[in-house]
Amino acid sequence: MIRRMLSAPPAAFLLTILGVFLYTGCATQNQNDPDKLPNIIYIMADDLGYGDLGCYGQETIQTPNIDRLAKEGMRFTNHYSGHTVCRCSRLSLWTGHHTGNLPIHGNAKWQMGPTDITIAKLLQEKGYATGGVGKWSLGDSGSTGHPNLQGFDFWMGFLDQSEAHNYFPTHLWRNSERVPLAGNVLSDKPQDRGRVAIQKQTYSHDLIADEALAFIRQNKINPFLLHVHITLPHANNESGNATGDGMEIPDYGVYSDEDWPNPEKGFAAMVTKLDSDVGRITALLEELGLRENTIIFFTSDNGPHQEGGHQHEFFDSNGPLRGLKRDLYDGGIRVPLIVSWPGHILPNSSSDHPSAFWDYLPTACELAGVQPPDSIDGISYLPTLLNTGVQKQHDYLYWKFEELGVEKVALRSGRWKVVRPATNAAFELYDLSVDNAEQHNLADEQPAVLSQLKDVIASLE
């Protein structure tokens, strides 16, 4: 449902309908013309909450460039990450599977194999130039999970996600080349695990952002897929343990004079720095004349963290939702999704279509004219983006989390959400249509609904 259309007065409604026809006509022409395959840019923040952006209700942290994307395109209000922690969330995104059909259910180290099918492999076979920057997490140098073996022509950033905690590392990776970072020296204390910098000169995020821009410039003629997996605003937990402040940022920028604890200044500065680099990407696309043929997705890998000295309540990072990172309440898994494509997606629109990371693969495939694998769990949400055709719906969305001996599960079906918040805990039932914050457990009042959803979970475990 596109809310802007439903709330428009009659005259504006007619103009909106006319605009929809113009937008959908452009999109259809683009998809059917092999010389005009759209560029696809997918930007993922790290531990950014549902409430951390201005366009999702944030009133303190400045995010003008991301808010502009929302004004130019569509804002999703019921979009979910692949998981509540990093590694599984990315694996779900790449492969189009929910966690019930993934080989891992937590952040345990794992690498992808040669038979795995990723969106990068599928678009690479179509002729797209494929590139990625930032945090990979699914295979180190020399392994079968290295991004160059998973469909990416180019990758620059972190391979091991634990190294990505540190914003002043000694090196990054450009494909299989170890790239030293000048002036960074790490602590040799065992408790710091090599992730606490005692000399800081080169901020890794700046190099990663520059490489994203360089990839766009180098591939401006041919269709490209670019994944920008920025580490901001993830905390450096080891540095936080050592100093009490793990929100590593060269300066606090516009927040320098605020009467806040330093970790909160750092968190806000990280989010605004992330926003400024989104602005650099859109400005470059406009400079190169690529903006109208480039669709941009912006999201976060899971809900907000409470690490490195940062308290998620300080900026109300989960907004109206309950929970945070590592929870399967919506605060841990419902994330922003903004999609902007001028001339194709109706500006300043929003959708409450329930969707998740595993829907990205079939959506990108449809954009590129590629047939997705039959075995995936995802459903393309391109009909929602373009307001054309019939949008298929999920029977359910499912998550499973296992870490440090704790097992959590959650399933959403329509308006209903069932959660088992800990191993052997009782199942809880919520009606999200009236209880977005998951405050009123209806397990005793709706036993038939609960029983039906538990049966679905049992079939997936």
Features:
single chain; 461 residues; alpha/beta; Alkaline Phosphatase, subunit A; Arylsulfatase, C-terminal domain; 2 domains; 4-stranded antiparallel beta sheet; disordered N terminus
Offer a concise description of the structure.
The protein is of the alpha/beta class.
Description:
- This protein is 29% helix and 18% strand.
- By secondary structure, the protein is of the alpha/beta class.
- It folds into two domains: 3-395, Alkaline Phosphatase, subunit A, CATH 3.40.720.10; 406-460, Arylsulfatase, C-terminal domain (2-Layer Sandwich).
- The longest helix has 26 residues, at 262-287.
- It is globular.
CATH fold-level name of the largest domain = Alkaline Phosphatase, subunit A
Beginning-to-end CA distance, first to last residue: 32 Å
Q: How would you sum up the major sheet?
A: 10 strands, mixed
Question: Which outline best applies?
Answer: globular
**CATH top level label of the largest domain:** Alpha Beta
Count every helix, treating DSSP H or I runs of 4 or more residues as helices. 12
> Number of domains in the coordinates?
2
Give the strand content: 15-25%
Rg over CA atoms: 21 Å
